[in-house]
Structure formats: structure tokens, C-alpha cells
Design goal:
CATH class of the largest domain: Mainly Beta
Largest sheet: 9 strands, antiparallel
Structural class: alpha+beta
Number of domains: 2
CATH architecture of the largest domain: Beta Barrel
Helix content: 10-25%
Number of helices: 3
Distance between the termini: 107 Å
Mean pLDDT: 83
Low-confidence stretches: 29-36
CATH topology of the largest domain: Lipocalin
Shape: elongated
Strand content: 35-45%
Length: 263
């Protein structure tokens, strides 16, 4: 009888140990699953930046859409109705992430939501679902990495005012960034030749360094001085189509340029 009790006791201990090990293993699996589930678009993707695409339009060839998201949860949205003139409509505000960390909603626009993927944004329908059908691909915005180097940027606006220049008295101010020449800036301030260095960083940040110019006396010195002052204050840039805008640290537009092509 004592031997029977002893054997039963051993079996109980073995069974209890097996259950404990199994439960422990299940807990470990659940913990691992929880860790995997914590990886979201919000915390694992480089989602900030500029996205662009042509959205469908009921009565025009399409709506060119450019949406910029910043790390501080601010957005800038620009749209242009194709073949309806050159007007560009700009909207700015903040956006919020949903609890899943996968979807953003533009604030004060409850129905304008986007699913955030790797270098892509899917515009969602009014119910928060991805749009399907033949036009599904047209509702995707692709992340763009605007190139401003090796381009001739001619000044067209300065501090919000159109720049008027006389070709008989001077040149249209411009600059070119040359990455293959150790980040050299070449340009002209309207009369005098410009030289300097530049640095490009993430989030469209730009820094101009060691700017120098010749010292010719020119009829267009007023524009030239304002142009040089603006260049010393720029912190960020934005590219839309063939236009480049430079901003100061408070996001005020200082100068606007148009890319020129030469035959």
C-alpha cells in the first residue's frame, strides 16, 4: 500500500511539472506575440517625408496631390487640378495616429485617412478601408526624395514679392548645388558671383556655409543684398514640380526659385 501511495505521488508531481512547463511555454509564446504586435508603422517606419501621386478626378484628368508629414505630427497638403490652370491649393494642419499605429487622420478632416506603409500612403474610403477596384492604384501616394542638386534654380520671388530684373543691368539671381564637386554652391546674386558650401540633411533641412561673393558695384544692389540675407537665414526647403521654396527656422518662405532648362 505504501508503495502504491509513493508511486501515485510521483505521478502527480510529474503531471504537475508537465503542466507548469507547458503553461510557461505558452506564456513565453504569448509574450513573443505581444512583442511582434508592438511593431507598427508609427514606431518602425521612416514615415515622415513627402508623398506624391495623381488622385482620380470626376471632371479632369487627375488631381496632383503632394502630402508632407513631419515628425511633430504636422502636415502640408498641396493639390493641383490638371488642365485647369496653374493654381495650387495648400492646406496645413496636424494629424493623429489611430490606436493601431497604422492609420493617420488629418485633423478636422475626419474622413481623410491614410494607411501608412513602407514609402507609401494608401488613401482610405469614408469607412476607413483601402479602396479596391480598377482605380485602387491611383489612391496610393509614393514617397519622393526631392533632388535639388545639379539644377539651375532661378530666383522668381523674394520675401513674397516677385523679382523683377533688367537683363541690361544684371543677371537673374540663381544658384546650382554640385555634389560631385564636394558640395560646392555656384551662383549669381544678380551682379556678383557667388560661391559657398552646402549641407543637406533629413526632413528637407539645408545649410549654406562659407558664402562669399565678388564685390562689383551694381545697379541691382537692393535685390542682391536681400537675396544674400535670405540665403544666410534658410533652414529648410520644399520642392513642388519645377519650383523650389526656401524657408527660415519659423517656416516663413524667404525665396522661391524656378528650375530652368537650357537647350
Amino acid at each position: 500500500m505504501k508503495k502504491l501511495y509513493f508511486i501515485l505521488s510521483i505521478l502527480c508531481v510529474v503531471v504537475w511539472s508537465c503542466k507548469t512547463v507547458k503553461k510557461s511555454a505558452e506564456n513565453n509564446i504569448e509574450k513573443k506575440e505581444e512583442i511582434v504586435d508592438m511593431h507598427t508603422s508609427q514606431n518602425s517606419l521612416d514615415w515622415n517625408g513627402t508623398y506624391q501621386g495623381i488622385m482620380p478626378c470626376a471632371d479632369c484628368p487627375g488631381i496632383k496631390t503632394v502630402l508632407t508629414l513631419t515628425p511633430d505630427l504636422e502636415f502640408t497638403k498641396q493639390i493641383q487640378y490638371l488642365e485647369r490652370g496653374d493654381s495650387i491649393f495648400t492646406d496645413k494642419g496636424s494629424f493623429v495616429w489611430d490606436k493601431s499605429g497604422q492609420i493617420i487622420t488629418l485633423k478636422d478632416k475626419a474622413t481623410e485617412q491614410y494607411f501608412v506603409g513602407e514609402n507609401r500612403l494608401w488613401k482610405l474610403d469614408d469607412k476607413g478601408n483601402k479602396i479596391t477596384g480598377l482605380l485602387a492604384e491611383d489612391y496610393i501616394l509614393q514617397k519622393v526624395f526631392p533632388a535639388i542638386t545639379d539644377r539651375h534654380w532661378a530666383l522668381i520671388e523674394l520675401n513674397g514679392n516677385a523679382v523683377e530684373y533688367d537683363t541690361l543691368k544684371g543677371n537673374q539671381p540663381y544658384f546650382i548645388l554640385r555634389p560631385d564637386e564636394k558640395n560646392i554652391l555656384y551662383g549669381n546674386s544678380g551682379c556678383n558671383i557667388l560661391r559657398g558650401k552646402y549641407e543637406l540633411h533629413g526632413n528637407n533641412k539645408i545649410l549654406l556655409l562659407n558664402m562669399i561673393s565678388t564685390k562689383r558695384a551694381c545697379p541691382m544692389l537692393r535685390i542682391e543684398r536681400a537675396f544674400l540675407t535670405a540665403l544666410r537665414r534658410i533652414k529648410t526647403y520644399e520642392v513642388f514640380d519645377n519650383y523650389l521654396t526656401l524657408f527660415d527656422e519659423n517656416n516663413n518662405a524667404l525665396a522661391k526659385f524656378k528650375m530652368q532648362y537650357f537647350d
